[in-house]
Design brief:
With 227 residues, this protein is α+β, with helices and mostly antiparallel strands. The chain has eight helices and seven strands, in the order H-E-E-H-H-H-E-E-H-H-E-H-E-H-E.
Length: 227
């Protein structure tokens, strides 16, 4: 994937800042029952923030990650083994994240972890709050137990303030989460890290409660499946 000029500017700004689909499920984070989504997640088609994959030396292409996992001796899943593998990983994640404030959502054969910004970070900060390190360590333990998955980390912001600032903040928060998981031994080549700024809200930005939901980091866990 070739980095466009806008992506390169995002990378430079972020480095500068750091140096300073088959059934319905009930989302434990929102309490809503919704249909499973299809496709490959929020990162696909996102131009802004895509340079973070490059910034962190993680792969910014599906092919690159696939080849890296194969090179690391992690075989691709096939057929019914995919669903079974993700079922077991979902159970492990739900057990690890019970009563933490982190939502676990099943989307077909994918898992999405929703980490509220107020739980993970202080206001206007990309520094992970101390009490959240243990939770991320539990996430890394499960990810290490189930290595045949890709890990997409994406940050989101509400619409308060300048869009450029919100974009950078969402990137830095995603990067903080991704780097911590990598530091816990999760294979770097499984990751793709990006920020969506304020462009992908899950609630209304007109209310304080809605803005709180929109300030979040999501981790999309997808199976490393044979084509």
């Amino acid at each position: 994937m070739q980095l466009r000029p806008t992506m390169l500017r995002t990378t430079v700004l972020t480095v500068a800042a750091l140096t300073m689909a088959a059934c319905t499920t009930t989302d434990p984070y929102t309490g809503e029952t919704r249909a499973n989504n299809t496709g490959r997640g929020v990162l696909l088609g996102a131009a802004a923030g895509a340079a973070l994959g490059y910034l962190t030396n993680t792969n910014d292409s599906e092919e690159g990650r696939t080849n890296a996992l194969i090179g690391a001796g992690i075989g691709a899943l096939a057929g019914g083994a995919i669903g079974n593998y993700m079922d077991r990983q979902e159970t492990a994640m739900r057990e690890a994240l019970s009563d933490t404030g982190v939502g676990v959502r099943r989307e077909g054969n994918d898992l999405r972890l929703i980490m509220p910004g107020d739980v993970t970070f202080a206001t206007n900060s990309a520094d992970i709050q101390g009490q959240f390190y243990g939770i991320l360590s539990d996430v890394s333990t499960v990810l290490n137990r189930y290595p045949a998955t890709y890990v997409d980390v994406v940050g989101h912001a509400d619409s308060v303030g300048a869009a450029d600032y919100n974009q950078q903040l969402s990137e830095r928060r995603a990067l903080s989460v991704g780097n911590y998981l990598i530091a816990q031994g999760v294979l770097r080549d499984r990751f793709y890290i990006a920020g969506m700024g304020e462009r992908s809200p899950i609630a209304s930005n007109e209310t304080a409660a809605g803005r709180q939901q929109n300030r979040r980091v999501e981790i999309l866990i997808r199976p490393h499946a044979s084509s």
